Amino acid sequence: MTAFKNLGIIPQNVKNWGINMKRSEQKARTKYNIRQAFIDLLQRKEMDNITITELAKSANIDRKTFYLHYDTTFDVYHDIIDDVSNQLDDILKQQNNFDFFIFFNELNQVMQANFKFYQTITKQKSYAYLIKDFTDILENGLTHYYLSSNQTTSNKIKIRYISNGIMGVYINWLAQPNNISQDELVHILSDLLENDIKHLNN
């Protein structure tokens, strides 16, 4: 490669690689801007009322560029949800011996990454169906980890109960985050979940 550079020549495959990398970075940056604009708009209006035109304008792009990444505004929401689901899966898969404290610490990091988004959906009753989606993600993750070989009706109900409880605590905390620190929240939830999981197979 150095020899080529000294001659002022860059092989075509290297040129293409550089161009593709640049395009990939630009695409990721544009999608990030669209998602952030979507989150900002959610704080002012309901998702059903967000138009592609205003979303594109908020993201400093035109409608044509928007359609290169998404078909509808709902696709932006589902992209965020899918990202959360993948992050939760990663948290669970990375732990050979499940540690509740580590789990909640990393779950908090996921929450903090889009804190404004979570605060918005937990403060408005019209976003109850979004909260259900997050509860389902958590339930599916816990079911996969704990009930892979013992998915009885009783255990499924217990996992659902645990998932709703965890989400309920987070909803209250996001609405009033100054009432308790994140560290305290992690310790409390870790103790509660560890105790609840013990009863799964009883």
TrEMBL record:
Residues 51-70 bind DNA. Residues 28-88 form the HTH tetR-type domain. One of its GO terms (molecular function) is DNA binding. Keywords: DNA-binding. It comes from the Bacteria. InterPro entries: Homeodomain-like_sf, HTH-type_Tx_Regulator, HTH_TetR, TetR_C_Firmicutes. This is Transcriptional regulator C-terminal region.
